[in-house]
Amino acid sequence: MKENILRTTISLALTGLLAYLYILVVPLIILVVFIILDYISGMVAAWVKKEISSRIGIKGIVKKLCYMLIVAVGMVVDWVVHKSLLMVNVKVSEEFIIFGLVVIIWLIINESISILENASEIGAPLPPFLISVIKRLKKTVEKKAEGKVENALGDKPKVEYL
């Protein structure tokens, strides 16, 4: 009985969360898949180099869990900015998701680079253009994100020093 209540509660919570964050579902799934692929490729690369270590493996898992915390912070920032803008009567779309989405995309790109580096260490041949395209994409995302944030929030805030 308790097990069914727990399963139902978890199912309802996840369903509610997915309904609220429907725009981020696909990018989040892609991020989770890339995190798993990066971890596996990193372990294989460590095994090939005979440097496999449970301590390093656990550190990698903790690092990947921290990625989810970073995504959560991005989502909370989206929510806070959205609600703050509504409180001062600035009309914004219900789909105002900038920070969470940019964080997810940035992490996917980082994981892509790491997967390619691991594949290279394993000995897989990599087309040079692929690495340069992904690194250029990372820079583009960072620049575009800065522009979108500035457009959404207005001019850069002026910092006054006391």
Largest sheet: none
Pattern of helices and strands:
HHHHH
Work out the count of structural domains.
1
Low-pLDDT residue intervals, each spanning 5 or more residues:
156-162
Tally of helical segments:
5
Can you count the beta strands? 0
The percent range for helix content is: over 70%
Notes on the protein architecture:
The protein is mainly α and 162 residues long. The chain is 78% helix and 0% strand. The chain has one domain. Helix 2 packs parallel to helix 4 and helix 4 packs antiparallel against helix 5. The C terminus is likely disordered.
Helix-strand layout with pairing:
Layout lengths: L1 H19 L4 H24 L5 H34 L11 H24 L5 H26 L9
From the structure above, extract its key features.
single chain, mainly alpha, 162 residues, disordered C terminus, flat, 5 helices, 78% helix
Short description:
The protein has 162 residues and is mainly alpha-helical. The protein is 78% helix and 0% strand.
